[in-house]
């Protein structure tokens, strides 16, 4: 049976979907976004995080039964409060078989998948079949820029977007606003054009830049080198979405 | 909030009213000595002279008047005399009756003149009982003093051309209040005189119950609409902040001016009404320290009311504090409270459940230190062949010894007469008995402090010393004695590796439950106190979470050094019901699940589960609703009491560095909220540490 590696389980994560939910943060991500604020989520191996509060080993390996068992202990509470479980990361797609098994073992809980969309179509379909809602990140539409800021091509991401829409799984597009990178008018209107009218689209959330993005790098012995100007105010251009008839909001 | 209210609030925050204060107080001692007054007479004389010495302050835009101008409550005995009076006796805190709640509804509806008649009728009945007669004479003297004060305010108002104020004061507090406005004005003066008389932690109780009739009548008759009623209530709330810097407390803000909203009526029907919601809205919009809001809820309370509570929480004042009727009422009933009274409970200064008008309870005679009991048990037992059960039985003995010691001290409790407070209570006048001699309920409350630390310590000992056998008890004791010097690795193992309370982990939670059961057993075994009441065990810590770790002059409780859950000497214990400081938990649901396992029927002195949420959690209406659901979950899981704090770490750090920029930053400290910048540094640091952990 396939095991999973998780770097945190956080209860009452209010911004990861409807109701009271618990978010499972899976460890390991194929991208390496320059602005990643969870650098400990990128490697798929356990690693030591050091902080003034003392060292901590991030990365626990679970069998699907173990993780489902932990989550099911609060199933009644989560259901009572319109909530459920969100699988986030890192990147859930890299552990799709594990997550699919965990979801099958859950006690009928509402499931949100929070993904960057980078993975094989087969893995993605495993999750789409089981998700009630998907949070889907779109960062950059220009392939070259995408590669340069995340380390990977966006081809799979754009392909999986269409797959998701064809499956009619409801989804929310999330766009991290990175100053001078993703928040350009060109990029935002390209995103608006791309998602406009897609079946299943609920809305687009623009995520304001998190100035604490670099806070955790030192704790895992890395240097934060964003390659853009953190201090520059972001361009939260909602108008381009409006023009394309897309419900967008700044969260 | 309109401009007028804004101005009233600003004036309070700027300390504007201080300019009216008198620099010299009254000297009562010479008079008391000259006339050779008894203690009862001195107490009544104190209220009278304070009322007489008060100067009238009426600001042109005020609609509810009374501003305190006397800085102090003067002594009625010299220190030597006081020492003699209390020799061999126990003084509770500062001495005077405190931390109870009057039957405000009764006094507002009767008026002082009716209370005076009742006193005189009783005086006639008790003619042959000199003690009763002396008390009733004192009570009448205090009533006349308040009437005189109100008359002077009325006359001054008339002179200032404020016929509206004069008309109010012609009616109240002498007569029954007829309108919402009159009721608030009456309450303002009646309560202020309690403070002037030297009593403190003067709770206001269920204002949404006893004021609701006045409001409804005014709304129905068209004398008020919702907006004008809100104006009045807001002004009343603001007025409660005028004098609060003069009130005694451990830290400023710790003044016990609480209100208790919602819940059920004495007949069990739902008590939430328009005034409940209005009080929550006003408290949210004013964002001032007083009054401190308690909200009674149950598993069935609607999310709309809880959302209003969450909006108030977002203000970062540290309230409302929630009490769960589903648990509290059966708990009180199981402790001998009659059901109607139990349903009428209010929350005292911090969290203790008391009955307005009927309780002369001392809800905080001290704290049992669970960590000290565990420490003592470990130290008594490195002898060969010791078992974990052997340790537990010594912990049980240690807890009982602490309970017996505290209760023994309070067998010698001496409360000064309180003739004025007595007229505000049920039955004192009628029965000719001063409040200090007791009321219907005369129980003592004992805090149970450091419970999570102690449970974690026991869990670690069970696992490492007895199950894994990886740590000889003697080695553990040696490390504790050395405050973990040279054994940091062991300390980390104790702190991180074992089961912890707050993670819904039965290995630790079962020990927590066991500790409180042992505590409840000890209180039950003690039986009746000399005051005829029982001991109520509770889950609070008050300031003991620091005192028990660092010591405090004059405290009766034992101090504990380094402890077996990996806590270093001097580091604070967990406050109230919370996980030990510095341990990681998965989140608030697990914490609630851990504390839901306690048998609250046996522990009913109160003491909240303390949860801190970053203020970033509360962004929009949807988030507010989720916080409301979290509170509902607390109730549905069967927990007893909850204190929910919204904190902003940057604000706290900046406030420590630049206090002048953050004069209005309010934080919850233990049972109360205070201005962060006015707290002493160790409390500031403790709050910051608590917060940093939460973000880690
Ligand atoms: S996709 Fe998310 S987790 Fe992965 S590198 Fe980018 S920001 Fe980090």
Describe the secondary structure blueprint for this structure.
The complex is a heterodimer of chains A (251) and B (696).
Chain A: E1 4-10, E2 21-26, E3 47-51, E4 54-58, E5 60-62, H1 64-72, H2 75-80, E6 84-89, H3 96-105, E7 110-115, H4 121-128, E8 133-137, H5 143-150, H6 155-167, E9 171-176, H7 185-195, E10 201-207, H8 239-243, E11 248-250
Parallel strand pairs in A: 2-6, 6-7, 7-8, 8-9, 9-10, 10-11
Antiparallel strand pairs in A: 1-2, 1-5, 3-4
Helix pairs in contact in A: 1-3, 3-4, 4-6
Chain B: H1 3-14, H2 29-34, H3 39-53, H4 79-85, H5 104-110, H6 112-125, H7 130-159, H8 163-171, H9 180-196, H10 207-210, H11 212-221, H12 226-239, E1 258-262, H13 274-286, E2 292-297, H14 303-314, E3 321-324, H15 325-334, H16 339-343, E4 346-347, E5 353-354, E6 367-369, H17 370-379, H18 388-410, H19 419-423, H20 428-431, E7 444-449, H21 451-467, H22 473-481, H23 488-497, H24 506-526, E8 535-537, H25 544-550, H26 588-595, E9 609-614, H27 621-636, E10 641-647, H28 649-657, E11 666-668, E12 673-675, H29 681-695
Parallel strand pairs in B: 1-2, 2-3, 6-7, 7-8, 9-10
Antiparallel strand pairs in B: 3-10, 4-5, 11-12
Helix pairs in contact in B: 1-12, 3-7, 6-7, 7-8, 9-12, 12-13, 13-14, 14-27, 17-18, 17-21, 18-24, 21-24, 28-29
The complex binds iron/sulfur cluster (SF4).
Give a verbal description of the structure.
The complex is a heterodimer of chains A (251) and B (696). Chain A has one domain: TIM Barrel (Alpha-Beta Barrel). Helices cover 28% and strands 24% of the residues of chain A. Chain A has 8 helices and 11 strands. A 9-stranded mixed β-sheet of chain A has the order 5-1-2-6-7-8-9-10-11. A two-stranded antiparallel sheet of chain A has the order 3-4. Chain B has a 5-stranded mixed β-sheet with strand order 1-2-3-10-9. In chain B, strands 6-7-8 form a 3-stranded parallel β-sheet. Chain B has a two-stranded antiparallel ribbon with strand order 4-5. In chain B, helix 14 links the parallel strand 2 and strand 3. The radius of gyration of chain B is 26 Å and the shape is globular. The model of chain B has no long low-confidence stretch (mean pLDDT 93). The chains are: A alpha/beta (251), B alpha/beta (696). Chains A and B meet through loops of A and helix 26 and helix 27 of B. Bound molecules: iron/sulfur cluster. The site of iron/sulfur cluster has 12 residues of chain A, from loops.
């Amino acid at each position: 049976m396939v095991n999973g590696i998780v770097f945190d389980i956080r209860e009452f994560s209010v911004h990861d979907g409807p109701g009271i939910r618990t978010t499972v943060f899976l460890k390991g991500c194929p991208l390496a976004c320059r602005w990643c604020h969870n650098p400990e989520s990128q490697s798929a191996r356990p690693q030591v995080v050091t902080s003034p509060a003392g060292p901590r080993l991030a990365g626990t390996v679970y069998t699907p039964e173990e993780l489902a068992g932990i989550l099911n202990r609060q199933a009644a509470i989560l259901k009572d409060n319109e909530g459920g479980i969100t699988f986030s990361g890192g990147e859930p797609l890299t552990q799709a078989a594990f997550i699919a098994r965990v979801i099958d073992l859950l006690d009928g809980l509402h499931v949100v998948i929070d993904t960057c969309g980078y993975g094989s179509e087969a893995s993605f379909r495993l999750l789409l079949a089981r998700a009630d809602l998907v949070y889907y990140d779109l960062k950059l539409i220009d392939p070259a820029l995408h590669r340069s800021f995340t380390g990977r091509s966006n081809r799979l991401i754009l392909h999986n977007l269409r797959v998701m829409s064809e499956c009619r799984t409801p989804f929310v597009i999330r766009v991290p606003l990175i100053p001078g990178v993703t928040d350009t008018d060109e990029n935002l209107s390209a995103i608006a054009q791309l998602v406009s009218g897609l079946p299943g689209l609920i809305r687009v959330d623009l995520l304001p830049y998190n100035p604490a993005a670099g806070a955790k790098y030192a704790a895992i012995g890395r240097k934060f080198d964003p390659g853009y100007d953190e201090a520059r105010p972001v361009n939260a251009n909602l108008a381009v979405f409006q023009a394309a008839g897309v419900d967008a909001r700044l969260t | 909030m309109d401009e007028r209210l804004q101005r009233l609030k600003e004036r309070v925050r700027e300390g504007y009213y201080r300019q009216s204060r008198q620099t010299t107080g009254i000297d009562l001692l010479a008079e008391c000595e000259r006339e050779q007054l008894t203690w009862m007479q001195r107490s009544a004389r104190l209220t009278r002279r304070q009322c007489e010495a008060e100067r009238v302050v009426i600001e042109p835009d005020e609609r509810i008047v009374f501003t305190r101008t006397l800085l102090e409550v003067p002594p009625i005995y010299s220190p030597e005399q006081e020492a003699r009076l209390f020799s061999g006796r126990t003084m509770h805190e500062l001495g005077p009756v405190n931390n109870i709640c009057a039957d405000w509804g009764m006094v507002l509806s009767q008026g002082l003149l009716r209370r005076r008649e009742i006193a005189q009728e009783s005086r006639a009945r008790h003619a042959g009982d000199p003690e009763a007669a002396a008390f009733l004479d004192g009570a009448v003297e205090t009533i006349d003093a308040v009437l005189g004060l109100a008359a002077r305010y009325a006359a001054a108002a008339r002179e200032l051309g404020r016929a509206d104020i004069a008309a109010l004061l012609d009616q109240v507090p002498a007569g029954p209040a007829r309108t919402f406005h009159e009721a608030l004005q009456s309450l303002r003066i009646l309560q202020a005189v309690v403070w002037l008389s030297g009593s403190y932690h003067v709770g206001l109780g269920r204002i949404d119950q006893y004021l609701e009739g006045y409001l409804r009548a005014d709304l129905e008759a068209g004398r008020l609409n919702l907006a004008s009623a809100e104006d009045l209530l807001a002004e009343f709330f603001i007025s409660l902040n005028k004098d609060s810097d003069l009130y005694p407390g451990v830290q400023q803000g710790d003044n016990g001016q609480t209100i208790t909203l919602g819940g059920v009526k004495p007949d069990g029907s739902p008590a939430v009404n328009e005034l409940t919601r209005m009080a929550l809205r006003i408290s949210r919009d004013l964002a001032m320290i007083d009054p401190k809001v308690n909200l009674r809820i149950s598993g069935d309370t609607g999310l709309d009311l809880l959302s209003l509570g969450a909006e108030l929480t977002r203000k970062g004042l540290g309230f409302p504090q929630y009490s769960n009727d589903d648990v509290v009422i059966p708990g009180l009933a199981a402790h001998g409270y009659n059901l109607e009274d139990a349903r009428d409970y209010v929350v005292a200064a911090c969290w203790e459940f008391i009955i307005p008008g009927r309780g002369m309870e001392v809800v905080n005679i001290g704290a049992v230190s669970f960590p000290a009991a565990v420490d003592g048990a470990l130290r008594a037992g490195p002898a060969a062949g010791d078992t974990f059960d052997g340790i537990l039985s010594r912990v049980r003995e240690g807890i009982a010894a602490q309970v017996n010691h505290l209760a023994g001290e309070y067998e010698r409790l001496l409360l000064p007469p309180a003739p004025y407070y007595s007229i505000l209570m049920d039955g004192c006048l009628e029965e000719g008995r001063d409040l200090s001699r007791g009321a219907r309920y005369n129980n003592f409350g004992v805090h149970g402090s450091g419970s999570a630390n102690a449970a974690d310590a026991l869990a670690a000992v069970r696992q490492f010393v007895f199950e894994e056998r990886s740590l000889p008890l003697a080695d553990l004791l040696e490390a504790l004695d050395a405050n973990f010097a040279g054994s940091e690795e062991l300390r980390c193992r104790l702190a991180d590796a074992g089961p912890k309370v707050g993670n819904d982990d039965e290995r630790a939670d079962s020990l927590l439950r066991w500790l409180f059961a042992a505590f409840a057993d000890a209180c039950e075994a003690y039986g009746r106190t000399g005051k005829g009441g029982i001991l109520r065990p509770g889950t609070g810590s008050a300031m003991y979470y620091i005192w028990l770790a660092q010591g405090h002059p004059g405290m009766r409780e034992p101090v504990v050094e380094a402890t077996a859950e990996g806590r270093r000497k001097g580091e604070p214990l967990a406050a109230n019901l919370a996980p030990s400081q510095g341990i990681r938990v998965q989140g608030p649901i697990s914490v609630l699940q851990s504390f839901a396992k306690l048998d609250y029927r046996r522990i009913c002195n109160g003491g909240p589960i303390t949860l801190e949420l970053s203020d970033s959690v509360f962004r929009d209406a949807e988030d507010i609703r989720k916080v409301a659901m979290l509170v509902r979950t607390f109730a549905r899981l069967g927990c007893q009491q909850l204190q929910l704090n919204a904190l902003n770490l940057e604000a706290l750090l900046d406030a420590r560095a630049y206090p002048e920029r953050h004069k209005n930053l309010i934080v919850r400290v233990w049972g109360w909220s205070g201005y962060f910048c006015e707290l002493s540094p160790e409390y500031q640091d403790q709050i910051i540490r608590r917060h940093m952990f939460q973000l880690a």
